[in-house]
């Protein structure tokens, strides 16, 4: 295991502070500092950046980010048991680590980071990871407040983020992420690297903002994709009836086949559907 600083090994930190992972918080602690350093490197150059981290736990990735030269790390941690361990890291890297106790779903990241150039890097808690990603890629202001996302998910979620049309994993998440972002899975991480080991393989995903996504109303796109993939086995003329009784006409006006299913429609097709739907609503 790599020695990235003079702090104790993570296993000793966990034992000293009694940090048994809580399933209710979606916790699985990554102890291998070789892997946390690899994740930190995957985030890109950190020397002039503020890094936002969610769910640092005992601080394995936090230490790697600071050792990689992050100007400042803001770590949001819901579990108060982890705060003493994070305070030790803060003391080792004076003035560079700020720990916020709270729920990341309830904290405004823009206000927290103060308009700095921000990279988000996190081993996200399994139970909130997908929702946090959706929040970050559907922010009204675009380009967003962040310049990159380097995030660990269950591999299944990573595949849903980067899935191409006509694949089993292709769905609403792939459309939203593919519309506004570039990137995908970088590498997998075995369950054996965690304490406790999860039942599934994890994957590290790296995304950067698409500076000029196809023009589209975000709310309309969210409604269209939710309806279409909510009944993905049905043809669009049926699945979109929850939005409009004229679903078949809507699909035809968008230049698509009413008999097509959601998984057959690429991102440009969904954008056209959303724009057509939005125009109809405005009449």
Characteristic terms for this protein:
283 residues; alpha/beta; 2 domains; two-stranded antiparallel sheet; elongated
CATH class of the largest domain: Alpha Beta
Instruction: Supply Rg.
Output: 21 Å
The percent of residues in helical segments reads: 25-40%
- Can you name the CATH architecture of the largest domain? 3-Layer(aba) Sandwich
CATH superfamily of the largest domain: Vaccinia Virus protein VP39
Strand content: 15-25%
Number of helices: 12
Overall structural class, as computed from helix and strand content, comes to alpha/beta
pLDDT averaged over residues: 94
Please report the distance between the alpha carbons of the first and last residues: 63 Å
Q: Which descriptor suits the 3D outline?
A: elongated
CATH topology of the largest domain: Rossmann fold
In total, how many domains does the architecture comprise? 2
Contiguous uncertain segments of 5+ residues = none
Q: Largest sheet, if any?
A: 7 strands, mixed
Mind explaining what this structure looks like?
This protein is α/β, with parallel strands linked by helices and 283 residues long. The chain has two domains: 10-209, Rossmann fold, CATH 3.40.50; 218-282, Helicase, Ruva Protein, domain 3 (Orthogonal Bundle). The protein is 38% helix and 18% strand. It contains twelve helices and nine strands. The chain has helices at 10-17, 33-42, 60-67, 83-92, 109-113, 129-137, 155-162, 172-180, 218-230, 236-239, 247-253, 267-282; strands spanning 29-30, 50-54, 72-77, 97-101, 118-123, 146-154, 181-189, 194-195, 202-209. Strand 5, helix 6 and strand 6 form a beta-alpha-beta unit. Helix 2 (33-42) crosses helix 3. 44% of the residues are buried.
């Amino acid at each position: 295991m790599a020695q990235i600083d003079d702090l104790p090994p993570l296993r000793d930190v966990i034992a000293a502070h009694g940090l048994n992972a809580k399933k209710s918080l979606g916790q699985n602690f990554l102890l291998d500092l070789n892997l946390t350093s690899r994740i930190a490197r995957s985030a890109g150059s950190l020397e002039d950046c503020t890094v936002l981290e969610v769910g640092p736990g005992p601080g394995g990735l936090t230490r790697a980010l600071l050792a990689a030269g992050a100007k400042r790390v803001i770590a949001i941690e819901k579990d108060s048991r982890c705060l003493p361990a994070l305070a030790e890291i803060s003391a080792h890297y004076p003035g560079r680590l700020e720990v916020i106790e709270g729920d990341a779903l309830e904290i405004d990241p823009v206000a927290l980071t103060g308009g700095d150039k921000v990279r988000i890097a996190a081993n996200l808690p399994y139970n909130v990871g997908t929702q946090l990603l959706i929040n970050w890629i559907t922010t009204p202001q675009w380009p967003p407040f962040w310049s990159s996302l380097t995030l660990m998910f269950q591999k299944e979620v990573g595949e849903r983020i980067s899935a191409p049309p006509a694949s089993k994993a292709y769905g609403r998440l792939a459309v939203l992420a593919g519309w506004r972002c570039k990137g995908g899975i970088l590498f997998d991480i075995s369950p054996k690297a965690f304490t406790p080991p999860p039942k599934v393989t994890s994957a590290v995903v790296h995304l950067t903002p698409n500076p000029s996504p196809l023009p589209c109303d975000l709310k309309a796109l969210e409604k269209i994709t939710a309806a279409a993939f909510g009944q993905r086995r049905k043809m669009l003329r049926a699945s979109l009836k929850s939005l409009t009784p004229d679903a078949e006409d809507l699909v035809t006006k968008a230049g698509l086949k009413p008999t097509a299913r959601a998984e057959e429609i690429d991102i440009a097709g969904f954008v056209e559907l959303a724009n057509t739907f939005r125009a109809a609503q405005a009449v």
